[in-house]
Design a protein that fits this description.
Largest sheet: 24 strands, antiparallel, barrel
Shape: globular
Distance between the termini: 50 Å
Strand content: over 45%
Oligomer: single chain
Structural class: mainly beta
């Protein structure tokens, strides 16, 4: 029998997908379709061999973390920040065979002592030859080694020559517009425009970021410009003065409870490693319009002692009210969304002046490192908490706040200990204590306890497992990863949380729990698979009850399965199936997702295609599914109702210095007469 050609395989796959999609639209029983499509994918890929493509590895390495963030109210903000930093790493991979901890620390999801373990290993054992050699280093396992793969190179630092006179830069412009959901009352055009420019010349790095969100005016302010702009410049050295930054700054010290303007930190229930806020100041590239420092900062290091300082004078968004009878202006709420597309939100823009300062001092003694962090904030207008609202009894009030923390990180053998204790000006406390351990070459685990007192306030802090509101949670977390057999990994995690005071949607102290179990099969060949079970339980007010609020437990179970086949850099198939059941109120949801990635050998063109078919009873059984998107963009749509979603993305690279990506996605719900909403995104990247 003649071996199928690539074009035949692709054509037959797409034709079969279209045929079964039509059947799904008219038949309620979709399990037969799901089974046939999965078998078809396996059959089509039987004839091809594989190595894992870097774009696919990058997507899968962060997918589970981002899908967990999607369910949180601050998930989009954190997801955007994470994907931006990961994209920067993929563009400029870390030299893993460098013994320079400053270079290795660019892998921001590693702890300080994982960075130290890497540096010590290279100094003592020599050059790392393969990615899987990393799993033998204390503090690492196979999962984490594979997560590192897209973001590292194994070239020796000595083999590289740095030309300090060479100037390199890149410009990325992203245009996006949603159709079918536009707000005709917005003052500006319905499209979004984001531009980022970065320049590097030896030890000097600089850049700027501009953003106009959908509905915002393009030219506003004095002088006229985009709604949001950001610019900065930095110099890095290897002597006593390590770094100087002017402009917009992102900072992270200790474990983040006092200062962390990057993504929210926390261990994934089953993913390897954790997103740690190691000591650093860096150029701010985020589009978060409020949580950053605008001013100057520097970092010093003398032998084993490091000192970092930041001074900031920034304007932030807030809702400002005037007290009746007195005329006193106060801040009722801080506005974090960053959207200024109505008369009400335009009044909140840059309404308050924020003066901030932060200083960190740390000392490194071989296997133990400890430090002290202080941060202070003063507002031009005082904050006034809501009167008569029991939920806001412990909220911050006044025009200034300060936070001080003491932290440590220590390693002994195969055990890593870390902790931080912080207190604000009102003596509200935050305490974090954790441990990462490796009981054997096949078994690794983590254990973490934290307590954020009601009312603890840190305006620029995001500690481990800190809630979006920043306080009122106590919890214990644990997980482990076990290599049960060659290429077979079992991971389990559980997080138990207690809320000692009222919180959003719950008018009594309450509790919540999250559990997940995952089995992964990751051989060196073309195929890989995983299955996962997820359990969530939280307490909320019953909205249908009148008078004194009564609570109910919102419980959900979900089962996920994924099967992947890759064929070098040319072809990749991923089939995902997820079933979710919400117990109270009763609701069920199912989704089948088929991803295809194609790279044409004779053309500078690559294509990603997704078809998602879903049916859910209501919003309670919605399903989040990570979706490949433009680099540096976070996109996890919530699939709810009965319908479909299709997305196509093209990458064209006519010359090495130019890259164009276009993505179009659309969705359709059963019973809708008008076409579903669609989304067009275009990104142009220039290197020069």
């Amino acid at each position: 029998m003649k071996k199928p050609t690539f074009i035949m395989i692709l054509s037959y796959s797409l034709a079969s997908l279209a045929q079964h999609f039509a059947l799904f639209a008219v038949k309620k029983k979709s399990l037969r379709f799901l089974f046939k499509l999965s078998i078809l994918t396996v059959f089509n890929c039987y004839f091809i061999n594989s190595t894992i493509a870097q774009d696919e590895r990058l997507s899968e390495s962060v997918r589970s973390i981002l899908e967990e963030l999607a369910g949180d109210e601050s998930g989009e903000e954190a997801g955007n920040s994470i994907t931006e930093r990961l994209y920067d790493l993929s563009e400029k991979p870390v030299d893993l065979n460098s013994s320079d901890e400053q270079e290795l620390s660019r892998l921001f999801f590693l702890t300080d002592f994982q960075v130290k373990s890497l540096a010590d290993y290279v100094r003592k054992s020599g050059k790392i030859l393969t990615v899987f050699e990393i799993m033998n280093i204390p503090g690492f396992n196979r999962d984490l080694a594979e997560m590192l793969a897209p973001f590292i190179t194994l070239g020796s630092q000595k083999d590289r020559t740095v030309d300090s006179s060479r100037i390199s830069s890149n410009l990325v412009m992203t245009f996006s517009q949603k159709f079918g959901t536009g707000d005709t009352t917005a003052p500006g055009p319905p499209w979004k425009l984001l531009s980022r420019y970065r320049l590097a010349a030896g030890r000097i790095n600089a850049g700027f970021t501009t953003e106009k969100d959908a509905g915002e005016l393009l030219l506003t302010g004095k002088p006229p410009g985009p709604d949001f702009y950001s610019a900065n410049i930095s110099w890095s050295g290897k002597g006593v003065l390590r770094k100087v930054i002017a402009g917009d700054i992102s900072g992270s010290f200790g474990l983040g409870t006092c200062v962390n303007t990057g993504p929210a930190t926390g261990l994934s229930l089953t993913a390897a490693g954790y997103l740690s806020g190691g000591d650093e100041i860096r150029l701010c590239t985020s589009t978060d319009e409020n949580n950053f420092f605008r001013g100057a900062g520097f970092s010093l290091k003398f032998r084993k002692v490091s000192v970092t300082c930041i001074l900031s004078d920034n304007r932030i968004d807030a809702t400002v009210d005037t007290l009746p009878g007195t005329g006193t202006r106060t801040i009722s709420t801080f506005y974090r969304a960053g959207l200024h597309n109505s008369s009400a939100t335009l009044k909140k823009k840059d309404a308050v002046r924020e003066y901030a300062a932060a200083i960190s001092a740390s000392c490194d003694f071989n296997n133990i490192r400890f430090g002290v962090v202080w941060s202070g904030v003063r507002f031009s207008i005082p904050v006034r908490k809501a009167a008569g609202d029991p939920e806001s009894v412990f909220d911050f009030e006044g025009d200034r706040n300060s936070v001080m923390s003491v932290w440590y990180k220590a390693v002994t053998g195969k055990l890593i200990l870390f902790g931080e204790a912080a207190a604000d000006v009102g003596l509200k406390t935050a305490v974090v204590q954790g441990a990462s351990f490796r009981l054997s070459d096949r078994l690794t685990g983590n254990l973490l306890c934290r307590s954020y007192a009601p009312g603890f306030t840190s305006f620029h802090g995001k500690g481990l497992f800190q809630s979006s509101s920043g306080d009122n949670v106590r919890g214990i977390f644990g997980n482990f990863t076990f290599e049960a057999a060659r290429y077979l990994f079992i991971s389990c995690g559980c997080d138990l949380r207690w809320y000692p005071w009222l919180r959003y949607r719950c008018s009594t102290p309450s509790e919540a729990k999250s559990c997940q179990a995952m089995v992964k099969y990751q051989p060196a060949g073309p195929c890989s698979a995983e299955i996962a079970y997820d359990y969530r339980c939280s307490v909320y007010d019953d909205p249908e009850k009148e008078g004194i609020k009564k609570q109910y437990e919102a419980v959900s179970h979900s089962f996920k399965g994924a099967f992947r086949i890759t064929a070098g850099d040319n072809l990749a198939f991923t089939t995902r199936l997820e079933y979710r059941r919400a117990v109270v109120p009763e609701s069920r949801g199912t989704a089948l997702i088929q991803d295809i990635s194609v790279k044409f050998s004779d053309l500078p063109l690559r294509c990603w295609f997704r078809c998602a078919l879903f049916t859910t009873d209501d919003w309670n059984s919605r399903i989040y599914a990570y979706e490949n998107d433009l680099p540096g963009t976070f996109n996890i749509p919530a699939l709810s109702g009965k319908g479909s979603r299709i997305a196509v993305m093209l990458q064209w690279e006519p010359i090495r210095a130019t890259e164009l990506r276009i993505k179009y996605s659309t969705g359709d719900l059963a019973g809708r007469e008008a076409p579903g909403p669609s989304d067009l995104r275009i990104q142009l990247k220039l290197r020069f």
